[in-house]
């Protein structure tokens, strides 16, 4: 069973291509034009242990919003396609990740009902070339398009870089658990409804 796909999405604001292999080794190539965002995507894929290639051409002369949000959309679509009918997956995943003084929890359910519950308290501003408001926008777009119920909760932290890095790593590690194949399911979908 191959759990990999490539998705291309082109609008008047962005052109984004994403390739995902859920059974990869954590190899990430990210080129979004936003250095800090590339760093976060590398943490997400590396700790999720899935291969991720992201190429973004966006209207950065406006700001980073379209590039970041649309990247979330396309990664979410790629995850959904790679998961297929979700047969045999663990479905749920939870991870707590410390990053120095920061501690962030991510818990998710590959439920088919995309939604984000975000309890991360960071000030408005910039981390390098990344607008701090955009982390939430990325995860909203990813969860909605992947069909994932995602909770991200900051337990501790003051440094915005540390908080976001812990969040991206925690989400990657939780996703790694959830997409893992449970051999005891014998290829069945992990739901009493029979579908996700």
Automatic annotation (TrEMBL):
UniProt GO molecular function: imidazoleglycerol-phosphate dehydratase activity
Signal sequence segment: none
Protein family (similarity comment): Belongs to the imidazoleglycerol-phosphate dehydratase family.
Alphabetic keyword roster: Amino-acid biosynthesis, Cytoplasm, Histidine biosynthesis, Lyase
Catalytic activity, reaction form: D-erythro-1-(imidazol-4-yl)glycerol 3-phosphate = 3-(imidazol-4-yl)-2-oxopropyl phosphate + H2O
Compartments (UniProt record): Cytoplasm
Class of enzymatic activity (EC top level): lyase
Known pathway: Amino-acid biosynthesis; L-histidine biosynthesis; L-histidine from 5-phospho-alpha-D-ribose 1-diphosphate: step 6/9
InterPro entries per record: IGPD_sf (IPR038494), ImidazoleglycerolP_deHydtase (IPR000807), ImidazoleglycerP_deHydtase_CS (IPR020565), Ribosomal_Su5_D2-typ_SF (IPR020568)
Source species: Adlercreutzia shanghongiae
Keyword Amino-acid biosynthesis: yes
EC number: 4.2.1.19
Pfam families assigned: IGPD
Protein name from the UniProt record: Imidazoleglycerol-phosphate dehydratase
